[in-house]
């Protein structure tokens, strides 16, 4: 019997901050109380005075690049970076090589993760214009959901046949997550600027090419289709203030049929940063204006936006160091997402309770993740200890991504993750990821 006792932590959970102890037995939270005495001489005690204890973060959108793109990242390397950032569970996207668009290929990814992941894991099944039969085979209790690329896809994963799209929305009871950008609008914009600049388009035109209009056209169509068919829709990575108008904050999250997320980079960066960061902050959807950034933050606070995620999508520096048309979109974020959000806390822009709600509780509610996302008796002991007053600077020697770089390089964060527990096991402490794989396949209470 393995016992862990966390003493004198400032526990942040379910809208409250309070001092307490947490007892973990065999990976399960067994007791939460003001003062718990060790019940065995073998208990491993962590003295957490001065630190805050949070539920482990559930990141609902990552690209860990395995299989097929492992020169950029692997499930092993990126899950290690994730636990260093307090992310104890992740949901990975289907656009690997081969793509997870059949049950066989999906299960191959689960098999890799079972042997290599430091964090808990699930994977999205990928929809295409011609794999509805495979979609209908997916077990909703064992798979996070269905991912549809309504723009910016790789391979054959762009679902651009409106008849097929309606059939998918009507036929599946899986949670549908969508990347929404209108390809026709983007193509027209690209033609204009390619004619003017050739391949070397200035990077600050990225949010003009992948414009507010492109995002809104696609998001509004997806929302309208979900309303028409009754499908359960989750719109990934909103990037514009205008899109936030499509979402509701008048009902509890558990009752919402249509939800949305915002990602760290759209909360942190704006188009003012392209001159300094260049293609390092080239994402799809694009980082847009300071006004958009502020409107997204407001929609997060007022609950039109339900979840904070990373869309972690690493590329090598060599790949990024290209002219606009050849530089891929995406960047690494899992290690630095929580420290970035805690900077907003220090600025007085958001509370600790709200950060936990959006990064831990709400992903668990939205995806119906079984017994995770909260500090509750009987739940899995996915926990993180955070020191809010322990500054550190992001630099090459403490970046854990396989790609070896971060858009936050040179940034000094006031807060750091000091300890991460996955299923009751200490997997990370002060820039060291411990050997041993403790991640489990996520299950869903549906």
**What is the CATH class name of the domain at 57-367?**
Alpha Beta
Second rung of CATH, namely the architecture of the domain at 57-367 = Alpha-Beta Barrel
Low-confidence stretches: none
Task: Characterize the overall form.
Answer: globular
Cα-to-Cα separation, first versus last residue? 31 Å
Radius of gyration: 21 Å
What would you give as the CATH superfamily of the domain at 57-367? Metal-dependent hydrolases
Beta-strand share of residues: 15-25%
| Number of discrete helical segments | 13
| Helix content, binned percent | 25-40%
CATH topology value of the domain at 57-367: TIM Barrel
In short:
The protein is of the alpha/beta class and 446 residues long.
Describe the structure.
- The structure is a single chain.
- With 446 residues, this protein is an alpha/beta fold.
- The protein contains 13 helices and 19 strands.
- Strands 1, 2, 3, 4, 5, 14, 17, 18 and 19 form a nine-stranded mixed sheet that branches. The chain has an eight-stranded parallel sheet with strand order 6-7-8-9-10-11-12-13. A two-stranded antiparallel sheet has the order 15-16.
- The mean pLDDT is 96.
């Amino acid at each position: 019997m393995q016992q862990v006792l966390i003493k004198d932590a400032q526990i942040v959970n379910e809208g409250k901050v309070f001092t307490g102890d947490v007892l973990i037995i065999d990976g399960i939270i067994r007791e939460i109380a003001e003062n718990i005495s060790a019940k065995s001489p073998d208990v491993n005690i962590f003295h957490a005075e001065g630190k805050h204890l949070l539920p482990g973060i559930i990141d609902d959108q990552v690209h860990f690049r395995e299989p097929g793109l492992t020169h950029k990242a692997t499930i092993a390397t990126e899950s290690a970076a994730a636990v260093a950032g307090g992310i104890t569970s992740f949901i990975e996207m289907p656009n690997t090589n081969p793509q997870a668009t059949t049950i066989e290929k999906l299960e191959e990814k689960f098999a890799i993760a079972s042997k290599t992941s430091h964090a808990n894991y699930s994977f999205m099944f990928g929809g295409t214009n011609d794999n509805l039969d495979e979609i209908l085979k997916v077990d909703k209790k064992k798979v996070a959901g269905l991912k549809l690329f309504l723009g910016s896809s790789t391979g054959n994963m762009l679902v651009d046949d409106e008849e097929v799209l309606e059939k998918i929305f009507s036929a599946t009871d899986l949670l549908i997550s969508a990347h929404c950008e209108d390809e026709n609008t983007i193509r027209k914009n690209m033609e204009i600027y390619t004619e003017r600049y050739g391949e070397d388009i200035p990077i600050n035109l990225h949010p003009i090419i992948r414009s507010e209009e492109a995002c809104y056209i696609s998001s509004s169509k997806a929302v309208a289709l979900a309303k028409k068919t009754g499908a359960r829709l989750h719109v990934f990575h909103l990037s514009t203030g205008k899109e936030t108008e499509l979402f509701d904050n008048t009902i509890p999250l558990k009752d919402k049929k249509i939800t949305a997320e915002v990602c760290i980079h759209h909360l942190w960066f704006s188009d003012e940063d392209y001159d300094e960061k260049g293609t390092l902050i080239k994402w799809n959807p694009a980082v847009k204006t300071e006004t958009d950034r502020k409107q997204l933050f407001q929609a997060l606070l007022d609950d039109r936006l339900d979840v904070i995620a990373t869309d972690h999508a690493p590329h090598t520096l060599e790949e990024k160091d290209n002219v606009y048309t050849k530089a891929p979109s995406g960047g690494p974020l899992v290690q630095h997402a929580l420290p970035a959000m805690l900077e907003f806390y220090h600025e007085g822009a958001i509370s600790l309770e709200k950060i936990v709600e959006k990064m831990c509780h709400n992903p668990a509610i939205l995806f119906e993740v079984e017994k995770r996302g909260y500090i509750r008796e009987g739940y899995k002991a996915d926990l993180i200890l955070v020191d809010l007053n322990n500054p550190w600077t992001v630099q090459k020697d403490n970046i854990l991504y396989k790609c070896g770089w971060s858009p936050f390089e040179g940034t000094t964060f006031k807060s750091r993750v000091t300890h991460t527990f996955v299923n009751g096991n200490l997997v990370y402490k002060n820039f060291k990821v411990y050997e041993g794989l403790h991640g489990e396949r996520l299950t869903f209470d549906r």
